[in-house]
UniProtKB/TrEMBL annotation:
Gene Ontology molecular function: FMN binding; riboflavin reductase (NADPH) activity
Protein name, as recorded: Flavin reductase
Species in which this protein is naturally found: Salinicoccus sediminis
Keywords on record: Oxidoreductase
Biological processes, Gene Ontology terms: pyrimidine nucleobase catabolic process
Source organism phylogeny: Bacteria, Bacillati, Bacillota, Bacilli, Bacillales
Ranges of residues in domain Flavin reductase like: 10-150
């Protein structure tokens, strides 16, 4: 099977968009990721999948804790910035919880203790134990077939 065929099929699974953040040496580093899911309620675990070539991988592996910010439609520019698709020249606002940066005004922000790392093919699965959560109102930023989009939660 061709890599492109696999990617095209996986792109048909609509996901939300997150930015993963870590504090390293007093500096905030981040990357966009849509490979995110909840794993367990007891303990409260989430999972992110990071490409082994990503510069963030070593930072995440060595960090005690990291942040996950679930983006709103209005934060698409932040997704593109942290995916290195476009440079955002404006200021980026963070909330810092227990020394972990998360994006301000995201739908939800999780502070996670580094729980376990599992090699998986050309990626590493990083499990985080959720220690803190922040919530905001808004509409989610989605990703489907390589395109950003959104959904309307007011369609009841």
């Amino acid at each position: 099977m061709e890599d492109r065929t696999f990617r095209n099929a996986m792109g048909r699974f609509a996901t939300g968009v997150t930015v993963i953040t870590v504090n390293e040496g007093g500096e905030t580093h981040g990357m966009t990721a849509n490979a995110f899911m909840s794993v367990s309620l007891d303990p409260k675990l989430v999972l992110i999948s990071i490409d082994n070539r990503a510069t963030m991988l070593d930072k995440l592996k060595s960090a005690d804790s990291f942040g996950i910010s679930m983006l709103t439609e209005e934060q698409k520019h932040l997704s593109k910035h942290f995916a290195k698709q476009e440079v955002f020249e404006g200021g980026i606002s963070f909330d810092v919880i227990d020394e972990v940066p998360v994006l301000r005004d995201s739908l939800a922000a999780l502070v996670c203790k580094n729980y376990q790392q599992v090699p998986a093919g050309d990626h590493t699965l990083i499990l985080g134990q959720v220690e803190e959560i922040l919530f905001e109102e808004g509409e989610p930023l989605t990703f489907f077939k390589g395109q950003y989009g959104g959904i309307r939660s007011d369609a009841r």
